[in-house]
Write a structure and sequence with these properties.
The chain has about 130 residues and is mainly alpha-helical. It has one domain (about 5-125): Membrane associated eicosanoid/glutathione metabolism-like domain (Four Helix Bundle (Hemerythrin (Met), subunit A), Up-down Bundle). The protein has four helices and no strands.
């Protein structure tokens, strides 16, 4: 396996950036958002990343381990990276960048569905 670690590493750097953005605003708020809408946006950008990325990376690793073609894994990984950068910028760095939020979400869902279907196909293939 050599493709999934590339995207896991790149996405981990993005996760670190999103984490730092939350920490930077936690001067007087140790839990929650303290009613600050900007802190809430950063928290949600960070949390949303944590909700989707690990499962997709896990599916990528399973697909890679199962022999999925490298080009397809790169398409999945690169699309996920672009999706999460768009979404992360939209939530953590801006207040109203609808393009980034919409297309970041859309691309994430496409990658999630594609990865899920490929995992199902790969699993069924072993039954035959």
């Amino acid at each position: 396996m050599s493709i999934t670690p590339l995207y896991a590493g790149l996405l981990a750097i993005l996760f670190l950036v999103l984490s730092i953005r939350v920490i930077q605003m936690r001067t007087n708020v140790s839990l929650g958002d303290g009613g600050d809408p900007n802190l809430l946006r950063r928290i949600r950008g960070h949390a949303n990343f944590a909700e989707y990325v690990p499962l997709i990376l896990l599916m990528m690793a399973m697909l890679e381990y199962g022999g999925m073609r490298g080009w397809l894994l790169h398409v999945i990984g690169a699309t996920l990276l672009v999706a999460r950068v768009l979404h992360g910028i939209a939530l953590s760095f801006t207040t109203k960048w609808k393009f980034g939020r919409f297309y970041g979400t859309l691309l994430t869902f496409i990658v999630l569905l594609l990865s899920a279907l490929l995992c199902i196909w790969q699993g069924l293939k072993t039954l035959v």
